[in-house]
């Protein structure tokens, strides 16, 4: 244990976000730098518990107390060794993970938890800037060929593990750039794309091959894929979005979040779907909704309102969600701070009943009604109907599973009861040699789970190809967050 009194002498501290009126004028990440002496104090708060619940909270099993101790002792190089031992991409999780590890931190029982995620990102950022992140080239090649379909965090983690195990790995991506939702879903102000590019450089140097603008199932058939590769990993995500089939849904100006965010991520200033001067309504109170808010504000929206059907969650842990579960709490993301009226622009317990036409086929307003809680099936409360202005609406209501198109049909994979691609303990589908990892098998989830699945599926593939494996297997496909 680094500092036996650290948790008594230092309070939890995080870097400041840049002032709202400054940061909404650019697309850069919102956080200021965090000086090393401050970070050392945060690492010193770790109690090095006998049973580190944070290990269990993190799906990757990150060795959190170990690297907290190493940071406290200024041994940053060893810290990145320990961090990379369990996590291929700490620069992604350190910026984007909701940190279930912190919800499980023992200190969190009666004080603020250790700032684990911040320590994580500072370790990897320093490692990159010191030049310690170098290609890990395999000592021996196996001659086996693996196709990875989809280049999100699951596909990338699997590809890196398998390339390092000596296999020839090709990652196929139908978009024009690698990264999955990291690239075209998550906006620059949450994670600048240069972090993806920097990691891809390492992966290319290790020998992973990337082919973009290839829609597998159409540009290359499932049959051709099977012929050309010894094993396949499906990591195409859960891209089938949930819709809102109410009156006026087909009006111009009503988009899915994943129709709105990708073009904005490609061209920040001149996206074809632009919020400039418009009244924007974001339907859905989650992270995707927050990403739409921050994007619309940077594009110069006249107003932004976020609607959520659920009641407002509590600010602190309710009795029904005790430590170490991952509670549903009221969050003030950076994008929420940027709303003109602060939290007043976040409207809870409402349901959209209609999109209103301006007479030309373009949406001009949204009609909504206040609803009772989920126990009543969100029963509308009579007399609460009202209209709010809406020139641009984004639907951010989650995803229902993978697209069941030519690729999955061509391969003949089976689905589980939720409509995700079914797999066994080794992440293999019902089709011999075809594996599945990430949101495509788990359903809509998080980056940390996708990386963990990619790592675990890689170990299944390695064993399938060679009869044995030394690759780690962090989670079972059936593992779920502690809620
Ligand atoms: C807007 C948004 C914001 C989010 N923010 C966060 C966050 O802050 N933190 C967090 O932890 N999680 C976040 N998530 C969830 C997280 O991004 C996902 O859980 C994660 O990216 C899933 O990884 P994946 O590798 O399984 O799939 P994805 O990242 O979805 O990648 C799948 C890739 O496969 C490609 N593909 C699909 N089919 C084919 C095909 N036939 N041929 C070739 N390529 C194909 C797709 O184009 C895509 O690029 C967010 C999700 C969204 C939508
Ligand atoms: S990956 Fe997420 S859960 Fe794991 S240590 Fe990092 S922030 Fe915590």
From TrEMBL:
Pfam families named in the record? Fer4_20 (PF14691), Pyr_redox_2 (PF07992)
Q: Which PROSITE patterns match?
A: 4FE4S_FER_2
SUPFAM superfamilies, alphabetically? alpha-helical ferredoxin, Nucleotide-binding domain
The answer to whether the entry has keyword Oxidoreductase is yes
- Pathway annotation from the record: Amino-acid biosynthesis
Q: Which UniProt keywords are present, listed alphabetically?
A: Amino-acid biosynthesis, Glutamate biosynthesis, Oxidoreductase
Domain 4Fe-4S ferredoxin-type, by residue range, is 37-68
Which PANTHER family does UniProt cross-reference here? GLUTAMATE SYNTHASE [NADPH] SMALL CHAIN
Q: What is this protein called?
A: Glutamate synthase subunit beta
Species: Nonomuraea recticatena
